Amino acid sequence: MIRVLVADDQPLARAGLAALLAAEPDVEVVATAPDGVQALELAASLRPDVACLDIRMPGLTGIEVTRALGDREDGGPSIPVLILTTFDLDEYVFEALEAGASGFLLKDAEPEDIVRAVRNVAAGNGTLDQTVTRRVLREFSRRRALQRVSTSAEAAGHLTPREREILELLAQGMSNDDIAAALTVEVSTVKSHIVRILPKLGVRSRLQAVVWAYQNKVVTPQD
To answer: Which residues form the Response regulatory domain (predicted)?
Structure first.
């Protein structure tokens, strides 16, 4: 069962998303919140598998909550965040990714796409709305690096050949299952490699790792 927290300052949007997810047999909506402050408090106490957050919320924005959930003072594991918003402005996407969000989806996405995104994030797979993915990756390739330790050349020395191969497949949009099938290895092996890849790149999520790969020209966005 995927335990989900829904946070949105618009009552109708909050109730609609909660109802959509609760109707799924493998999803449990453990709480809803009308603002960022309550969202952070509920996430800290309930430890959901996924936090679905709006960007513009009173008290704390979805970006600020995302950052807080990734930077826990007790050193515990971060809570995966799926950002759902009516805004597809690039700056929001950039800030969400840099804050450590595992996914970004527009609220006008099809219901099945939203449910699929929640499942993907819960499974450790990043999600970017298809309408913004290409331009986001292109823009990130021109921006500063997400971290300041590993440059492309330095990371090449940090990553093993297998880790670099997995990073390239990640950047192609493959899930853990897809990568395991392509490399003829167990899914658990892929997950272990990804766990080791992230700190080497100085990033906190597989989605950030994908962005890093495009920024540092490990792969190139396709037209």
So the answer is: 3-122
* The predicted structure's pLDDT at residue 114: 92
Q: What is the 3-state secondary structure (H, E, C) of 59-110?
A: CCCHHHHHHHHHCCCCCCCCCCEEEEECCCCHHHHHHHHHHCCCEEEECCCC
Judge contact between 200 and 163, C-beta under 8 A.
Answer: yes
Does the pLDDT of residue 79 top 80, yes or no? yes
* pTM to 2 decimal places: 0.73
Q: Which domains does the chain have, with CATH numbers?
A: 2-139 (3.40.50.2300), 144-215 (1.10.10.10)
What pLDDT score was predicted for residue 146? Answer: 47
User: Would you say 9 and 34 are in contact if contact means Cβ atoms under 8 Å apart?
Assistant: yes
**pLDDT tens string 183-205:** 999 988 998 998 888 888 877 77
Neighbours of 73 (CB within 10 A): 6
